[in-house]
Amino acid sequence: MMRTDQPAHDDVARRAAESIDETRLLASIETLAAFGARPDGGVNRPALSATDLDARRYLVERAHALGCAVSTDACANLFIRRPGIDDAPPVMTGSHIDTQPSGGKLDGCYGVLAGLECIAALNDAGLSTRRPLDVAIWTNEEGTRFAPGAMGSSAFVEPARMPTYLDAADAGGVTLRAALESHRRTLPELPSRGDAPPAHAFVELHIEQGPQLENADVPLGVVTGIQGVRWYAFHCEGVAAHAGTTPMPMRRDAMTLAVALRASLEEIAVSLGGEHTRVTFGRWSVTPNSINTIPSDVTFSVDFRHPDAHVLDTFDTLVAACARRHGARIAPLFAHTPVRFDCEVLARLDAACRALDAPALRLTSGAFHDAMYLAQHCPTAMLFVPSRDGISHNPAEATDARHLVLGARALAHTLTTLCND
Ligand code: HGY
Ligand code: MN
Ligand code: MN
Fold first, then answer.
1. pLDDT tens for each residue of 265-296
2. Which branch of life, at top level (predicted)?
């Protein structure tokens, strides 16, 4: 099974962790951030955009330089494989590299680059593992170009979803189908995998994107699960008319309706979910969007998060009734139930933190991640590092270098023990 000259599990895992190279990891974060760099230090790299395709090309070249094979699938997920001694179900890690329009350098990217750094560390330490190690790059996790979010990982675990995604279009009318074709033209040499092969485990390293670890002054978070999410679009209709000539009582102003509806929806969310409620009305479109024309159509989004599945289901019922009362149309965009991660993988993460003498806090993720789908496919868990000032989805997103390196070391330790199961 394993090479007899190979020291025991923990020593091997410790050697892998110690071989993480701080300079190489931090440099890779800056190099990837250059693809879609914003003048304010953030990143704008929409899923399967030209900048995303360039970034993918860079990462495929890095993977080949590390001696890895790269494959893809129907949803343009990338899989970077370090071979194992046995052709056993792999251990998987990874995250996403698509960003918010005014995103940071670390959301998703850190997990991908730390995965590649773990491969480089294993190579430097001359360590083989029984199982292969796969670093995945999941397509369209953010869901801001194409809805729903976590599209690539959801299609990986349930390929029957793909046909329902292909006609999803971005704000410019470009469909996912067309974007996938661009990806095929950019990376024509990548072999395409069939449906998802079994995996031994999946571990995703990510920034917390909130304030808990920093407030507790703890460098690592062992993530026990992810709260649930609901995305909706609400459509409010009015009648376009002249801003100067139309008396107020005569107006059917779509924005007046939308503002009243927003207030009702927020009231529902807060009274239903209490202190755990997170409700956001982040994307608005107004037609004709002219200073001196009364809006005829207003569409806005709702992003509702809560750890309690019953609250989420009740929210669905209440907002549908609310839309009817306000004469608005409602379109569900995305829904995922709360997720609890695997105890054995959590125990491996705990062991890695102990091995590195690193304090760790157990917490639930407020943000969703690809791990919420991978948890349906194989034993899954996540590891967090702190976000400075709890900020993310913002160019100011940052994490102390010592935390970035410690997170990568804990990931290397965990992946190595799992790869030698
Ligand atoms: O929206 C989310 O929770 C994730 O950051 N895409
Ligand atoms: Mn993310
Ligand atoms: Mn994000």
1. 999 999 999 999 999 999 999 999 999 999 99
2. Bacteria
Best residue among 140, 141, 207 to mutate for probing ligand 1, ranked by most atoms within 8 Å of CB: 141
CA dist 274 and 227 (Å) reads: 14
pLDDT band at residue 8 under the 50/70/90 scheme: low
Answer yes or no: are the C-beta atoms of 42 and 105 closer than 8 Å: yes
Break the chain into its structural domains and give their ranges: 7-226+339-419, 228-336
- Give the CA dihedral 245, 249, 251, 253, nearest 10 degrees: 130
Q: List pLDDT tens digits, range 57-81.
A: 999 999 999 999 999 999 999 999 9
CATH topology of domain 228-336: Alpha-Beta Plaits (3.30.70)
pTM of the entire predicted model: 0.94
User: Does residue 380 register a pLDDT over 60?
Assistant: yes
Q: ∠ CA(117), CA(123), CA(128), 5° rounding?
A: 120
H helix and E strand count, the chain: 13, 14
**Domain 7-226+339-419 belongs to what topology?**
Aminopeptidase (3.40.630)
- From the list 22, 49, 21, 19, the residue with the least C-alpha distance to 35 is 49
Element (H, E) at 13: helix 9-18
State whether the beta carbon of 157 lies less than 6 angstroms from ligand 1.
no
Cβ-count burial 40-58 (b if 16+ within 10 Å, e if not) = eebbbbbbbbebbbebbeb
Provide the annotated binding site for Zn(2+). Answer: 96, 107, 142, 206, 393
Ligand 1 atom nearest the C-alpha of 368 is: 3
Cα-to-centroid distance, 126 and ligand 2 (Å): 31
Mean pLDDT of the chain: 96
